[in-house]
Amino acid sequence: MTSTAVSNEPERPALIGIDWGSSNLRAALLGASGALLDRRERPAGVFALADGEHASALYELCGDWIAQHRAPLLACGMIGSRQGLVEVPYVACPAAVSDLARGLGSASIGPDATTGGGQPSTLYIVPGVKTGSAARGWDVMRGEETQLMGLDAIDRAWLVLPGTHSKWMHCSPDGKLESFQTYMTGELFDLLTRHGSLARVMAAPRWSADAFAHGVTEARDEALENLLFHVRTAGLMERFQPSELSDYLSGLLIGSEIKAGIQRCPPRAAPASISVVGSAALTQRYVTAFAAFGLAAHEIPGDAVFRGLLAIARQAGLIDGVAATTPATTSL
Questions:
Q1: pLDDT (0 to 100) of residue 5
Q2: Cα–Cα dist 211/249, whole Å
């Protein structure tokens, strides 16, 4: 477990915000103004826990906060999925922060003998969001919608959250989520670099901007299904070194995602600028790839989720009598 005290200001904690995904459990102690008072995390994601282990995982991470401050607990992410603590129904697009607040689920979660005993607390859980239909198929997400609500409205117009399952979101001028699409870019990259014929011709990666750029450009102009085989032949014919092939593949997959994402843009809503949210190592690749398509993109650090939890908590009335204020310099 890691813990980082972020602010020494004597502000009263107003919310314990929890980002509980498939791999990791992160928690933040938040002041009413938006100040981040403390933060902790550990690798105790939903997929790493068996039934009945959720309470122990949460109390091991921040049971002292819960006992000391008695602040509301609000979580987002896969904790609200069918594999989580309790399944919270999806909210349909278009979705605003008020829709997420109205759709909150809840569960009683309390310490047991392994965590010192005491009274259980109510864990409120943000619903996921869905779009689509039975005829066209569905897109769903859990956690990204909360991160979206933590961003300024100006950064939400066209938003891409790259990752295992990359999300493309389109929002209205007032910040309401209108539609989104999911691309399994990160998962495909992981599978193709670990298994099958492409993995056999690759060596330990050494960053190659040239190989990545070639991949993006080729994906822009040609079909991915044939291009994927070119990763194998690029090694056989020594077009790229084995250590460069993973970057060539990365360019192909990201370029293909961007081509598909642009084609799915709603009519008359082509993006003038795109916000890319996430870790720097990944967002920089996307910004570079967007430039090959003639589109401007800018990076946003991928840690707006706690601001989003605070906004939803305010809207849901979990923080009584608190109005949005200008955060202090130590805010999220």
A1: 57
A2: 8
Residue of 43, 269, 38 whose CA lies nearest to 171 = 269
82-129 pLDDT, tens per residue? 999 999 999 999 999 999 999 999 999 887 544 455 678 899 999 999
User: Global pTM?
Assistant: 0.85
